[in-house]
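User:
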Amino acid sequence: MPAAAWMTLIVAALIIAVTAVALLRVIFHLRAVRATLGNVLGGVTVVAQQTSTVPARLTSVNANLKPVRDFCESVPGPVAS
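Assistant: Predicted structure:
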């Protein structure tokens, strides 16, 4: 086999090896990102639960405070000059 053929095989093997190492690094980085995103998703879920809307049971409180709101709305405001 001529030297040019051996050189071509060696260069091709080096290119394939470097590409394989790069792909392995990408795989490991993506696994780390996946773990991080799992933690972020868990944190966002906790924040969403803690900042959810007021429960429906407070509608009775609003109904009990309606007379107070009606009185406050009947009080005249400051007179504009």
